[in-house]
Amino acid sequence: MINKAIEYIKKILKEAAAQTFTALGFFLSWFLLTGSAKDIVGIMIVVAFIIWFATINFRK
After folding, report:
1. What does the alpha-carbon distance between residue 19 and residue 4 come to, in Å, rounded to a whole number?
2. Quick check: pTM over 0.85?
3. How do residues 26-44 score in pLDDT, each as one tens digit?
4. Residues 5-14: contacts with CB under 8 Å, at least 24 apart
5. For residue 8, pLDDT beyond 90
């Protein structure tokens, strides 16, 4: 059970490393926004990453 958790964490880290520039672009755009747009975009970035990491096994 612990081995599966470690393997899943490795998959997440590998996926995150592969998409470094995408994440950088997301956070740069978030940083440049102001007001309610910044709040909405920030929430959507977090939701997108959660969905992205939750569906790793479906995409491989």
Report:
1. 23
2. no
3. 889 999 999 999 999 999 9
4. 8/56, 11/56, 11/57, 11/60, 12/53, 12/56
5. no
